[in-house]
Amino acid sequence: MPCHLDTMFDRPQSAVLPRPPIPTRLRSQPEAFLVLRRNPLELWGAPAYRELVLPGRFLGRQQILLNDPAGIRHVLLGNHENYVRNEPARRVLRPVLGEGLFLAEGEAWRHQRRVIAPALAPRVMPILSRHIVTVTARVEDEIAALGGRPVELMPLLQRLALDIAGQSMFSLEMAAFGADLRRLLIRYAQGYAKVGLLDMMLPAGWTTPLDRGRAAFRRDWLALMDRVIAARDAQAPAGVPEGETASRDLFDLLRAARDPETGQGFDHALLRDEVSTLILAGHETTAVTLFWACYAMARLPEHQEAIAAEASGLDLSPEHAAQAVPKLAMTRAVIDEALRLYPPAYLLVREAVGPDVIAREAVAAGTIVSISPWVLHRHEAHWDRPNTFDPHRFLPGRPAPDRMVYMPFGAGPRICVGMQFALTEATLVLARLLRRYRFSLPGGGEVVPRGMVTTQPDRPVRFRLAVR
């Protein structure tokens, strides 16, 4: 193991970073609904972080918050077909994800998974790593041009991740589409991404006022996706390095992919929904992961220096970055710890199709089962010093956490198909940025996570990135 990691073992540095307040009393249902609209990360009281099964009722329906690993395994793996996404989640997510993999169920989901999975297999990572590093190098040079002036980091990381998604998906520069895409996502996040009271009360097929706004958003979103695909089709193919697949990007792989069982591929509408899913999941979640990792490094400079030292001896060029990823142990550990304390997808909600028993708790059909990575990753039964940012817990040689206790990408058959891409991207970007720049927070102050579409900072934050 490299000597600097040995040093980190000898002198571990850790910190409890800011988090939303934990309520000290049981809220009424109207209060809970208002908190859900304001910041869902404030929903759970202290018992949620101690108990393995927390039953309750909300709007007359049985609810369970599940922190028991065996129970989670039962819901997400052993009997997963009995637990589907509930209607409020579908109302919220359908405008951007359509009928793509994330929302599909049953045979439609199995077909899509069989088609998509090979396009994101480990053998494709060298192609994607080249895109990641090429875009990151350009952004590094843009930062250098700031001359050390403070920069608001979240928009910069969102643009960086969007450019990587555009290059990886379409081999396209996203400058022509980035402003429209961010404008639409802001419109969605501010207007339609939160569950409304009627979303929870009305059955499927009943239209709410929010649904009408979501439908209008959906039309604008699809028009933008069609523009992106048209621009990609009009672009002349670029050369592909010798010895690699003739596919230049994920779009080629997805369009050519066929279900190995049926021979069917995707029609235009479904291909567009899969592209939407990968763009949204592939840039927003990675951007927030990188933000929280950078925020932690600015607060914990010793870890920052360890990453810089680790990355300085490696070839992180487009041609060799994929081979360097396994050697970035400390960098990856920081990413893993950022994903533990700030999971982008902070809540998974399922509805029981039929009666069942979970962790010795009887479950009726229609019961809402919640699994919150935010709570699970901070649970006192599963983690030592659960609220402390300490990447040492993820370094090589340490015991791996249970897959049902650490799940930033979900678990079971529906685990995120883009997990390997996201981890590769976050690791390479963080290593390259910290190798070249030293991060600090000139304004000081605390940043509190807020649950929106993903786990976002509660305010704009300016960082100083000084050249090493």
Task: Give a structural overview.
There is one protein chain. With 468 residues, the chain is an alpha+beta fold. The protein has one domain: Cytochrome p450 (Orthogonal Bundle), CATH 1.10.630.10. The protein has 17 helices and 14 strands. It has helices at 3-10, 29-38, 69-78, 87-97, 106-116, 125-144, 153-170, 175-191, 197-201, 209-234, 250-256, 268-299, 301-312, 321-324, 329-341, 373-376, 419-436; strands spanning 15-16, 53-58, 61-66, 83-84, 151-152, 348-352, 356-358, 361-363, 368-371, 388-389, 437-440, 449-451, 455-457, 462-467. A 5-stranded mixed beta sheet has the order 2-3-9-6-4. A 3-stranded antiparallel beta sheet has the order 5-14-11. A two-stranded antiparallel ribbon has the order 1-10. Strand 12 (449-451) and strand 13 form a beta hairpin. Helix 13 packs antiparallel against helix 15 (329-341) and helix 13 (301-312) packs across helix 17. It is globular, with a radius of gyration of 22 Å. The two termini are 25 Å apart. Mean pLDDT is 88; it is low at 1-12 and 239-245.
